[in-house]
Amino acid sequence: MRRTTIALAAAALLVSFTGCDNAKDKAGEIVSSATAAVASAAQEQMDKVKDGVNATGDVSAGATSTDGDRTVATITATNPKDETADYTIMVTFRDGDGNFLDSVVMNIDGVEPGKSKTGTARSNRTLSGTTKAEISQALRH
């Protein structure tokens, strides 16, 4: 996530020093690259799960709120199977227009059969404006 912070700071500096369209275009490229890196890192975490079964339908995201300087959302996993299961979940935070802001991977472990359990998805950085959390991917294992 440090790469993202550095890239965003560089983009802001580039725009503030020059103010020209070329600099703004370059700043946009840097921000796009940083957000792609965040998404890629989250996907790499999901790819580490072995023998996971697609369980996106078992998981839901609640409304977002702030906790200090981070955006958070309550994530609920409901286990429809007859064995206790663990869930690895990729949560994506988006702005009011649906644009990607951040992505995190979290675990909800030990969900008993037929029961639900919650966890909190917490953004990696400060997000501003209206945000929404969505379940991008969920694996039951």
Instruction: Tell me the radius of gyration.
Output: 17 Å
Low-confidence stretches: 1-20, 22-33
Helix content range of the residues, please?
Answer: 25-40%
Please report the number of helical segments.
2
Subunit arrangement of the protein: single chain
The secondary-structure element order is: HHEEEEEEE
Structural class: alpha+beta
Please state the average pLDDT score: 81
Termini separation: 27 Å
Please tally the β strands and state the result. Answer: 7
Q: Strand fraction band?
A: 35-45%
- The biggest beta sheet, please? 4 strands, antiparallel
Shape: globular
How are the strands of the largest sheet arranged?
1-7-4-5
Write the topology of this structure.
Layout (H helix, E strand, L loop, with lengths): L1 H17 L2 H27 L5 E2 L4 E9 L2 E9 L6 E11 L4 E12 L4 E7 L8 E10 L1
Antiparallel strand pairs: 1-7, 2-3, 3-6, 4-5, 4-7
Give an overview in words:
With 141 residues, this protein is of the alpha+beta class. It is built from 2 helices and 7 strands. It has helices at residues 2-18, 21-47, and strands at 53-54, 59-67, 70-78, 85-95, 100-111, 116-122, 131-140. The protein has a 4-stranded antiparallel beta sheet, covered by helices on one side. A hairpin with a 2-residue loop joins strand 2 and strand 3 (70-78). Helix 1 (2-18) runs antiparallel to helix 2 (21-47).
